[in-house]
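Q: I have 73 residues here and want to know how they pack in 3D. Can you give me a structure?
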Amino acid sequence: MSEVARAASERAGLGSFGSHRLRHTAGTQLLQAGASLFEVAEVLRHRTVATTAIYAKVDHLALRDLATPWPGW
């Protein structure tokens, strides 16, 4: 499957990348759009959420709004 994605990306003039990058991008964009980690796991057909977390990285800049300031800073 990775070779199919690589050939298609090259034909489209996007450079060379495989299916792993597509999965990572899809997982990350689903999370940014508001999907839960469980929903992303279902779309990517993972058995565990721990596996999904590898592909669907969290936006650290978005987390800054959730963090409370450290006392004294």
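Q: Anything worth noting?
A: The CA atoms of residues 38 and 64 lie 23 Å apart. The first helix runs from residue 2 to 11.
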